[in-house]
Amino acid sequence: MVNFINGGNPGLRAETGRSKTLGLVFSPDVIQNLDLSINYWSIRIENGVASPSSLYIVNNPQQFPGRITRAAPTPGDPYPVGPIISIDQTKVNFGFLNEAGIDFGINWHTQTSLGEFSPSLAATMVSHYVFQFDPASPPQNAVSQANDQTNYAPRWKGTIGLGWKKHLLALGVTGLYTGTYKDVQDLTPTPRSLGNFWYVNFNGRYELGRELAPNSPFWSSAFIAAGVNNLGNKLPPYSDYAFGSQGYDPYQYNLLGRFIWAQVGLKF
Fold first, then answer.
1. What is the pLDDT confidence band of residue 190, given thresholds at 50, 70 and 90?
2. What are the tens digits of pLDDT across the range 73-107?
3. Which long-range contacts (CB under 8 A, 24 or more apart) does 59-67 make?
4. Which of 185, 217, 178 is nearest to 199 (CA)?
5. CB–CB of 92/52 below 8 Å?
6. What is the pLDDT of residues 40-55, one digit of tens each?
7. Per DSSP, which regions of 207-265 are E strands?
8. For 234, which DSSP code?
9. Are 40 and 21 in contact (CB under 8 A)?
10. In this structure, what DSSP letter does residue 219 have?
11. Radius of gyration (Cα) for the chain, nearest Å?
12. Domains of the chain
């Protein structure tokens, strides 16, 4: 009988990390109230906390000294090392995550006789995503490749929006885009293609208090708001994530369909 020891480890070191960013914002004079931005970023995390498997510890005892306890060898044992009686699987410092990408942004607002319009666009391109959290596995490239460790990112994600405001009424529509990526490979050697989809949200707000009681220090801040999330009632496609136990990828899709909401509020 082999005893397995699991849990925390008081000898763990703190995870360490470093990040870099370099950005630029350009506001051209020829188009008032227009901001163009680009931002490079990178993140590296080291000394991650991992739980090595018992098989990996047994096959690589030199990496885990003192974690295997053996009984005294029995007479006639062809391998004079003694049988294993316990394996210490408590957490260790191991692994890294290295991610980098570029953020793009366009923001503009302009006043017209029909009201103020504010279109916007934001996008992220992930150029590098490599991690290793399991000593038994090689580093994994996780750009647009899903995995059960949930450490991955589609190469492209973005948001496009249009806002409108006039007097006490404001309306907005937002599209959330997720680019193409490959499903996990739990059940099929050739993963299916997921992503390349939009969620569209709509919302509105009316400053009711400023209309009915503009001079009241209390009621003037009252408002009503309403909106629709997932306007197209988009449901997620099937995914092999967690060996198909959930049926979809909960980190990119929302199982909730079209959702209508309303709110009445007062700020004080």
1. confident
2. 888 777 778 889 999 988 888 889 999 999 999 99
3. 60/135, 63/135, 64/88, 64/92
4. 178
5. yes
6. 999 999 988 877 788 8
7. 223-229, 259-265
8. -
9. yes
10. G
11. 27
12. 19-48+95-265 (2.40.170.20)
CA atoms within 13 A on the CB side of 128: 11
The answer to whether the CB of 181 falls within 8 A of the CB of 146 is yes
**Other beta carbons within 10 Å of 74:** 9
Rounded (10°) CA dihedral 42, 48, 53, 59: 90
- Asked if 208 and 224 count as a contact pair (C-beta separation under 8 A), the reply is yes
Q: Are 198 and 226 in contact (CB under 8 A)?
A: no
Using CA atoms, how far apart are residues 41 and 24, in angstroms rounded to an integer?
A: 12
Q: Please, which residues have CB within 8 angstroms of residue 30's CB and are 6 or more apart in sequence?
A: none
The one-letter code for the residue type at 176 is L
What single-letter DSSP state applies at residue 54? H
Alpha carbon distance 195, 178 (integer Å)? 6
For 192, the token pair is 């299916």
Going by their DSSP bridges, the two strands 140-141 and 181-182 should be labelled as: unpaired
Closest CA to 43 of 151, 149, 137: 151
End-to-end CA distance of the chain: 66
Continuous segment of H or E residues that includes residue 59: helix 54-59
∠ CA 87-93-99 to the nearest 5 degrees? 135
Residue 262 near residue 226 (C-beta atoms within 8 A): yes
